[in-house]
Amino acid sequence: MPPALKRKMMADAASRGDAKEAQQRESWDQLKKRINGPVNKANIGNIKDIIVELFGANLVRGRGLLCRSLMRAQSQSTSFTAVYAALIAVINTKLPLVGELMVTRLVLQFRRAFKRDDKGLCISSVMFLAHLSNQRVAHEVLAFQIVSLLLETPTDDSVEIAVAFTREVGAFLGSIAPRVLNYVFDAFRSILHEAEIDKRTQYMIEVLFQYRRDGFKDSPVIPDGLDLVEEDEQIVHEVAMDDDDLDAQDELNVFKFDPDFEQNELKYEVVRRGILGEDESEGDGSEASGSESGTEGDSESEEDSGSEEAEEPEATSTSQPPATQKIHDLTETEMVNLRRTIYLAIMSSISFEEAAHKLLRIEIRPGEEQELCNMVIECCSQERTYKNFFGLIGERLCKLNRQWGNGFAQAFESCYENIHRYETSHLRNIAHFFAHQLTTNALHWSVLKAIVLTEDTTTSSSRIFLKILLQDMAENLGLKTLNEKLKSNDPRMSEAVRGMFPRDNAKSIRFAINYYTSIGLGAITEEMREWLKTAPSLAAGNSSSGSDSDSDSGSGSSSGSSSSSRSGSSSSYSSSASSSSGSSSASYSSRSSRGTSRRLRRSVSPEKTAPAEESKQGSDIPKPPSPAAEPKDDVETPKNAPKDISSKSDQQRDSRGKTRVRSPSYSPISRSPRSPARASNDDKRLSPTDSHRHHSRSPRKARDSEHTEKVMRDLKIDGDLERRYESRS
What we know:
- With 729 residues, the chain is an all-alpha fold.
- The protein contains 33 helices and no strands.
């Protein structure tokens, strides 16, 4: 309760004349804190100190609070059941009312849970009763009644609860009542052989028999460090399962005005001194501290003597520092218990509505709201694949209360900052979770301000996270809607996505463009591409680079034909096209020159046959003048004129020194692509359809016959030339 509200309530009560009731209510609140705090911190190492601290509070008045606190703590952490049972066993030796109330409430709770088929509550109740039986707080008959009730009509759940109970109490029953234990295991054996139960339950029974053969060594009667009560001091409460007059005394859990409050407090103070063995001096000091805490407050100050009034401020001043002292729990036991509760609430739910309802019912202290958001995200990340169940839980929480939305927004920033510490599967699930929150508008898109997409500020993990996040959002919203959202005119949105679309330098812009294009989201980079083209600073950089390229091209043109060819190979498509056209024209000119040389060789081929005939006949026959070799008086040949290339090719000699004469029939001119002979043959050629239609011979045979006729014609020409030269000679 805030101090201002408490002062107002005290003033209102004083004005109505209810000052004593307000004082008792305040002491009741302090009593709850003095009981709940030590109970939550109890463990094997500090149980003795916790017991002394609990006896400092009025456990007679707050026995209902103590039992409720212990039952709640045990149901949330069953591993500490033995510790809580030992705590009750010690208190039971001094205050049997507390032990009896605890056993009664546990029996009633088990009966209610058994009727409602609440398996979890049944297991926690019988576990607590088993350890209380081991500590000799509850009678062993109660343990036998519980097992008999569970095995009377065996089902999978009832047998499982009975196995868990027998495992904890089996060693105790074996030492106190072995016949009872034999009867219990005979019942288990008959169920194993005759009852129709699940394979899992049969296996649990077999494991229980193995536990018995091992002597219950893993479940001793009293664990080490918890044997705190002597046998002659133990007080056993014979509470039966079928008692109809059991009273839970629920009225002890709430505040009730006590007209004899001061006298009852004095009586308990005497009891406390006797329990803890304090002397009178320590009692005075404790009484002063009790008056400081409000248990023996202001009503006695008017009735005390002057000396007591003089001693009271001194005692108050000496006891004031412990009252303002804060205890910091470095073990984080309460935080661990809260995380366990949240985890169990999520994983035990069938639907996301049930999970959200359970999470909202958890009592979370101020300042621990962020832990719930972190636990939801952590549970989602631990799954093998992403489940939409967790995304729906987060969406429901964000839309119910703004504080959960702020918590998930803070969790997004924290996860992105530490994204390099997650495994790839965890990272993927977290990205899908936040993509769901953003696409459903459960989270505002301003959380994206934590993302700065540059080469220096991102890692491989953060880039994978952003890739999965954006791809999932594009799949759910559509690329067009996603682009409109990211390019919204909202100032808050523009400020949030500034880091995702950098515009500070060209390197970061190109990196962002390449990244979005590589993940299939190139459509959202259109504005960055346009800005990269039209940015003033970048335009200046482009112009300077252009001038440098011009100067380089100028120097290259003056370096000769070799440098121009190299620059041409690295130039644009137009320059390559022009070079290719130049090469084609050069090849055309070379072909034309070869055609000319072939015609010249054919024209002089008749003269080349004459030396060959002379060598054969061995006579001196005068060579007729060649038309091509006749001197021309009109034209004067320059001295530096290039020699005819065809003369070298025509005047080839063999290895024996003789001149080789090429026949006109084998001159290259007849083999050229468009020679007159082949042109005439091509003109005479018909299409395959016409040849088959009008001629009986196949096209191939027709071509062969044409070739044969051509060869014969050439040979006839050679024979005519020979006869002509013979007649001249």
